Amino acid sequence: MKELVEVVAKALVDHPEEVVVTEKVEGKNITVELHVAADDMGKVIGKQGRIAKAIRTVVKAASIRDNTRVDVEIV
After folding, report:
1. E strands along the chain, which residues?
2. Hey, which end of the chain has fewer CB within 10 Å, N or C?
3. 58 is in which domain, residue-wise?
4. For residue 19, what pLDDT is reported?
5. DSSP assignment, residue 28?
6. Domain CATH number, residue 45
7. Are 4 and 61 in contact (CB under 8 A)?
8. Burial class (CB in 10 A: 0-12, 13-18, 19+), 27
9. Beta carbons within 8 Å of 61's beta carbon, 6+ residues apart
10. How far is CA 53 from CA 50, 56, 68, 69, 70, in A?
11. Total tally of structural domains belonging to the chain
12. Residue 17: φ, ψ to 5°
């Protein structure tokens, strides 16, 4: 899941070299933290959070195959 979030985030931002994705595994729960440059925060979140919601939806759909629960946090 970490790689999926990283690829999507790097495609959206102006400074892809500053994208950092960390993953914390706790049983069947995975928390993916996305860190981007301050200038790119709006691009990742989108108007009214639409882009962030879309990223979470794609990751959730991919996680169903692995029978895990994935939360994406934008930090």
Report:
1. 20-26, 29-35, 69-74
2. C
3. 2-74
4. 96
5. T
6. 3.30.300.20
7. no
8. exposed
9. none
10. 5, 5, 18, 15, 13
11. 1
12. -70, -15
Could you tell me the pTM of the whole model? 0.89
Q: Which residue has the tokens 């946090």?
A: 73
Question: Tokens representing 60?
Answer: 């959730």
Nearest to 63 by CA among 33, 29, 12, 35: 29
pLDDT, one tens digit per residue, over 10-36 is 999 999 999 999 999 998 899 999 999
pLDDT of residue 28: 87
Q: Report the alpha-carbon angle 47-51-52, nearest 5.
A: 105
Give the span between the Cα atoms of 44 and 55, in whole angstroms. Answer: 9
Contact 32, 59 (CB under 8 A): yes
